[in-house]
Design goal:
single chain, two-stranded antiparallel ribbon, 6 helices, 11 strands, globular, binds cytidine-5'-triphosphate, binds magnesium ion, isoprene biosynthesis, IspD, 2-C-methyl-D-erythritol 4-phosphate cytidylyltransferase activity, nucleotidyltransferase, Nucleotide-diphossugar_trans
């Protein structure tokens, strides 16, 4: 099976509060983007990779990505548009399944990617890496200018959605396009598939597969990186 991969890397990293988009920040001697691209393209089932970059991205040219087969595609205004731009270039006959992974998740493990792919192929439908929430969860409600607890939400049913997310290429492309046309907010691939009424498998992944979002995440990522390589 030849799997296509899409890595959306066209964000500006606003919450990181640095001038450089966070995917170009260094982590253990390489950029975050290089780690993410390497970990995805190294997987033996991944045969081709589409990388969504900002049209005016001045940083990519200076990024020494070693893995050859990589197609660049223009990013869009939001993550979902970057992903859809890439999906529109993929031949779904040659690549019936697609793996979508955030550029900002440089710590994903090969074993998790394999578990996700195998779990989905076995089930016959798509799925996502996810990790169970640990804290007691509350639904909040703004009341008289304060945040009050409306209720405690049953934790057993709650998961953090991670990436990669793995879906049939054609189905995902159609689900995203139709959800966007209907004005639905799409924050990950699964939400488009859910909206389309498709089943989505939850495959438990390692919690160290964090998304670099805020400054403190860099310190955490460096620690996790070291732990993975001990
Ligand atoms: N992304 C993208 N195109 C966009 C926005 C985001 O390809 N228009 C990518 C980011 O580069 C990142 C992934 O989607 O790899 C996850 O998004 P997020 O963590 O939100 O990154 P940013 O949007 O860059 O960060 P922020 O929301 O803090 O600005
Ligand atoms: Mg964002």
């Amino acid at each position: 099976l030849a799997i296509a991969a899409v890595i959306p890397a066209a964000g500006v990293g606003k919450r990181m509060q640095v001038a450089v988009p966070k995917q170009y920040l260094p982590l253990n001697g390489k950029t975050i983007l290089e780690h993410s691209v390497q970990r995805i393209s190294q997987h033996p089932l991944v045969a081709a990779l589409w990388l969504a970059l900002d049209k005016t991205d001045p940083y990519f040219a200076g990024t020494p990505l070693v893995n050859g087969a990589l197609q660049r595609v223009d990013g869009g205004s939001e993550r979902v548009h970057s992903v859809l731009n890439a999906l529109q270039l993929i031949d779904a006959t040659a690549y019936p399944w697609v793996l979508v992974h955030d550029a900002a998740r440089p710590l994903v493990r090969q074993a998790d990617i394999t578990n996700l792919i195998n779990g989905c192929l076995q089930a016959g439908y798509g799925g996502i890496l996810a990790s169970p929430v640990r804290d007691t969860m509350k639904r909040g409600q703004a009341t008289a200018g304060r945040n009050l607890v409306a209720e405690t939400v049953e934790r057993e049913q709650l998961w953090h959605a991670l990436t990669p997310q793995f879906f049939p290429t054609q189905q995902l492309r159609e689900a995203i396009a139709q959800a966007l046309a209907a004005g639905v907010t799409i924050t990950d691939e699964a939400s488009a598939m859910e909206w389309a009424g498709q089943p989505v498998l939850l495959v438990e992944g390692q919690a160290d597969n964090i998304k670099i979002t805020r400054p403190a995440d860099l310190t955490l990522a460096a620690y996790f990186f070291e732990q993975q390589h001990l």
